[in-house]
Write a structure and sequence with these properties.
The complex is a heterodimer of chains A (262) and B (330). By secondary structure, chain A is α/β, with parallel strands linked by helices. Chain A has 11 helices and 10 strands. In chain A, strand 7, helix 7 and strand 8 form a beta-alpha-beta unit. In chain B, helix 4 packs across helix 5 and helix 12 packs across helix 13. Chain B is mainly α. The chains are: A alpha/beta (262), B mainly alpha (330).
Chain lengths: 262, 330
């Protein structure tokens, strides 16, 4: 590690929903500047919760960080309002994309610039850059996002995030519901961004095959805890990752099923 | 052509409204020449005041996606604020009173944002309870001075109409600038997906409050017009829950998130009872009395809303766009 400190450090994070359901039980993970890190795990393992906690999006879902903290570039952002976290340079692309359906693709992209207050000249330059990364969007820029295809919406959501000039991009299930070819296209674009600008990326994926090919390191979550971490290369060779990924790991925890019990 | 199809399918206009110039020429140049007192007093003045109120509510409900059942209490705040400003600070010009009344309503909107329905009951109660607001008038019903701009006093029905027209045009311009701005786009973003708005860095709470304030500002001014130009009295009963619903219905029927929609909806709501009364009397004669009129009016408006919500959720504005698109193709 040449860099002295991680760009983001999640430290022993506990999250409960409705004061009762434990979603994260002390998960810790780190991303170093310029890394692509994948978070893998079955449904309900806590991937989305981890990512939502990073952007402080839990309160609207009655979720709460009960202990632990999240440091972004060394500063505690655990309880910072979501829009301030974006201004600090940490931007998320939500699961299911969530474009503003009645705004056009270009207007969607503008919202990302507006929110951090980029000047209109710089924003226009950023817009061109997004269109260079996703040329498909340029042709459809006048189309309301609600009428765009799933792939175009995903690209719009990523482009919108890039308009906020992030130093760290967090993506929740970018492959969900997309054709394999589009998934590859999206991940290749992310890889180019990472290589070209040093953008740090944290990506939660069910599609471990794709994620492990593009990520440098990965964490595997289960029942709200990190059960495995390492270089993507190594994890790809191991068979037990598939066991975790497929959610068959309960055999190793006969008394397990924590999520159901509480 | 694809642009038209797109704007039809989403209910959003991509082109500036056609016919606005024609409408303005008609409203400023032609109508004042030929209009009758009845047309001004019974149709056009209430139409303009209600249009403005609906315009205000549309910013909140249509663009920012926040519901409000307290529009008419905000109109009351505006009307009483203007009355008291005139009474207690007579040196202020009327137009400034108008803007200040709007600002006071905006401040009210800020605090009553989450409780618009409560405001609807609370505000008239306060205005009734404390005599100060109505200058201790024993009846609680205050007749208002005629509106004026500088030395020009608008004390005829044509004058009151023109006064409303000027104010509404100015407010429309303001609203148009607002919904096209960055803030307007943020309103739509929050309406379309609040979490996504949060995640792109839009300060959601602040933006919602801006929507409430802007909306209340316009509704407050509409209240002044309603009281000073149409009713020519100020009384809490003029601003009841029914009026709030009427404004909400105007927005729904006219078209959510459409500035024209407010005017189309208001035109429908104002002329509909008059047409219904004529039609009812023609068909049934004297059997069709005022009670029956009110009944049938409620039933038909209710039906209309159901039909619109099912077949044309984007309202009259979208219906008009579609008709124009068809006729352009034919």
């Amino acid at each position: 590690m040449t860099e002295a400190s991680p760009i983001i450090a999640i430290d022993a994070l506990h999250v409960t929903y409705n004061h009762a359901i434990v979603a994260l039980a002390g998960a810790s993970l780190k991303v170093w500047p310029g890394e692509i890190v994948a978070v893998l795990g079955a449904n309900g393992a806590g991937k989305s919760t981890t990512l939502r906690a990073v952007s402080n999006l839990l309160p609207p879902q009655r979720g709460r960080v009960t202990s632990g903290k999240i440091l972004f570039e060394g500063r505690d952002i655990t309880h910072l309002p979501a829009y301030r976290i974006v201004r600090r340079g940490l931007v998320q692309v939500l699961e299911g994309r969530h474009c503003f359906r009645s705004l056009t693709i270009e207007e969607n992209l503008w919202t990302g610039a507006a929110a951090v207050g980029t000047g209109s000249r710089d924003a226009r330059h950023d817009l061109d850059r997004v269109y260079d990364i996703f040329p498909a969007l340029r042709d459809k820029r006048r189309l309301p996002a609600g009428l765009a295809s799933g792939g175009e919406q995903q690209m719009t959501a990523i482009g919108r995030a890039l308009m906020s000039r992030p130093r760290m991009l967090v993506l929740d299930e970018p492959s969900m519901g997309l054709a394999p070819r589009i998934v590859e296209e999206v991940f290749r674009a992310l890889q180019r961004l990472n290589a070209g600008t040093g953008l740090s990326i944290l990506v939660a994926e069910q599609n471990s095959n794709v994620a492990l090919r593009y990520a440098g390191r990965a964490y595997v979550l289960e029942h709200g805890e990190v059960v495995l971490e390492g270089a993507a290369e190594t994890l790809r060779q191991r068979d037990d990752i598939k066991t975790f990924y497929l959610g068959l790991a309960d055999r190793r925890h006969p008394t397990g099923a924590v999520a159901e019990a509480v | 052509m694809s642009d038209v199809a797109i704007s039809l399918s989403t209910g959003r206009r991509l082109a500036p409204p056609l016919g606005l110039g024609t409408t303005l020429v008609l409203a400023y140049g032609i109508v004042p020449l030929f209009g009758t007192e009845y047309l001004f007093d019974a149709i056009l003045t209430p139409f303009l005041a209600l249009s403005l109120a609906a315009l205000g509510l549309n910013i909140l409900a249509g663009y920012a996606g926040q519901i409000s059942l307290g529009s008419s209490s905000f109109m009351a705040i505006g009307a009483y604020a203007a009355y008291n400003l005139m009474l207690r600070v007579p040196a202020l010009p009327m137009l400034l009173d108008l803007v200040l009344a709007g600002a006071i309503t905006a401040a009210g909107g800020f605090y009553l944002a989450v409780s618009t329905l409560a405001a609807q009951f609370f505000v008239p109660w306060v205005l009734n309870k404390f005599g100060w607001f109505s200058n201790n008038d024993p009846s609680g019903v205050i007749s208002t001075p005629a509106p004026s701009i500088g030395p020009v006093v608008f004390d005829t029905s044509r004058g009151r109409y023109l006064f409303c027209l000027v104010v509404v045009t100015a407010a429309l311009l303001l609203a148009w600038r607002l919904v096209g701005s960055r803030t307007g786009r943020n309103f739509i973003a929050i309406r379309d997906h609040e979490t996504a708005a949060r995640i792109v860095g839009i300060p959601v709470l602040r933006t919602k409050l801006i929507a409430f304030a802007a909306s209340s500002f316009i509704i407050g001014i509409a209240g002044v017009l309603w009281a000073f130009a149409y009713l020519r009295t100020v009384e809490p009963n003029g601003f009841d829950l029914d009026r709030s619903f009427q404004i909400l219905f105007i927005v729904i029927l006219g078209g959510l998130a459409s500035l024209r929609g407010a005017f189309l909806g208001a035109a429908l709501m104002v002329t509909f009872p008059l047409l219904l009364a004529r039609a009812g009397q023609a068909a049934l004669g004297t059997v069709f009395d005022s009670g029956m009129l009110e009944m049938s009016q409620r039933i038909l408006i209710g039906l209309l809303i159901i039909v619109f919500l099912i077949y044309e959720p984007a309202g009259l504005a979208a219906l008009l766009d579609r008709l124009r698109f068809r006729s352009a193709r034919a």
